[in-house]
Amino acid sequence: MKLYAVIIGINRWKQYTEPFIQSLLNKEPLCNIVLIDNGSENPYSEIDGVLLKRIPLSSYAAAINVGIKLCTNADWILILNNDMLCNNSFYNIVTQLSPDVMYGDTLQKAWGGYTVGHLMLISRKILNTVGYFDEQFEVAAFEDVDYCRRVKNAGFSIQKQKFPITHFEGKTRYDISKYSEIRELNRKRFLEKYRQ
What we know:
Strand content: 15-25%
Number of domains: 1
Low-confidence stretches: none
CATH superfamily: Spore Coat Polysaccharide Biosynthesis Protein SpsA, Chain A
Helix content: 25-40%
Number of strands: 9
């Protein structure tokens, strides 16, 4: 089984991204790592064993798509924020999971049910059916809700799954200028897309 982690980060290299990468390398050596530097002011450094791709500042959805396209032989792709820390191995957990289910470490009831985009585990089967993330959602909001809706509409399910990964709760998202206004625009885009 080929497992890839796609980490999307912007800035905060020493505070979050580098320690997270090192924790993954130490705790989960069977996971291939793709790091997307999403327009950091000081570009991220190269680390042995990590595929680094630097891109101009893009939406979270667009950055995820860049990362996914680099995981050509992946059976499973784990989408992750950079403000996290790996505490233990999770490869064996993934080998027990169903490719007909998308997993996350949270499950929200709003908007028909979704898992939050800071940690989403997507099988190749789901990705081949549902496709990439919708890049009309600007910056970082509602691309996760939209993807979960599409997963469900395609006949798959979404479940909560505990992973030994700590999330430091949106430490980079709220640094974004006018984030609240952008989130509201994306909410309207989501409602318009699924309006009956």
